[in-house]
Fold this protein.
Amino acid sequence: MRKPVLLIVGALLLARAECPNVCRAADVPAPQVYTRIATPDSNTVQLQIVLRKFVPAQDGGPAIWLAGVMHVGEPEYYHALQEFLDAQTVVLYEGINASAHPRHVDDGTGAGAHEGGGAHRPPPQPSAGTNGDYSMQSALARCLGLVFQLEAIDYDRTNFLNSDLSISEIQRIMAGGLRPSAPGEEGKANVSFEVLLKIMDGSSFLGSLFKAGLEVVGSSPELRGMAKLTMIEAVGQLKGDLTDIQGLPPDWKRLIQVLIEARDEHLLGDLRAELRKIPPGGSIAVFYGAGHMDDLEKRVTGSLHYRAAEEKWLTAFSVDLRQSGISPTTAGWLRSFVQGEMEEMQRH
């Protein structure tokens, strides 16, 4: 039963290198939580994500906002995020399909790039198995009556700068630095990563089953409500470093490690470069999935010597139990089930 949970976690990390020892030094405070479950009343359950501000521990300098995000949410959530991001000097955002935002991604010629620059690289090529314009996360959002981040946030902003690895770069890391395998070629590929990609674009058997399941869930208010409640409970209980989950199979542990740590290591290089260009009164927002924030906070407080100074909690989405036809007994059972699954993953 835990494998679907792993797929959900992996998908949430992907939508959009090891951390140096200094990031894990004993004198660096443990990262704070970035997700929480709120119950403003007996019928409402909310998933909330924090925007956390960091400032230099000693010398003056630009502020860094770790802007964790849920990739599906309510329109009001993304409206609040858009206003926040537009107010920052620079926004470093995730996106392994960087060619989806050509105006602000350097293609190696300098055209369309943010004036602050970033690593020069050719635009990434689609991976094998790409299935047209289908997006599992977009389909998931529609099923739940929500919206997808990439369709709700306007990235056509001059202060937005893509800061991520491409699919081919991730594949190369997963293959131990070797050339990624071509479609149908044996070896040099991480099976879990390929499975995840094909689930997300609906091109595999599991992806087809997921699509069919979404159609069933979306046809019933109660099933839709239970699916939202399950996501709230699962994401709300994802605390700490996801690469430390003991129940992960070795292949999946390596995948989660790369999806988080290798991409964060790349991001840190861009972050250092932008910090040198922005005046002390400026700010940089790191706009990445909430699953990255634990690792990123270790890097920001350890390597960059910043400290937490302020936070803003936003509600990504909520579920009305009464309106969804979910009884308190069913909600309690579902909460206990998800909690049990998460604890089981931590124990093994």
The chain has one domain: 2-32+49-202+241-318. Confidence is low (pLDDT under 50) at residues 1-7, 9-26, 100-132, 178-188. The two ends are 14 Å apart (CA to CA). The beta strands are 35-41, 44-56, 63-69, 72-73, 90-93, 147-148, 160-162, 283-289, 306-320.
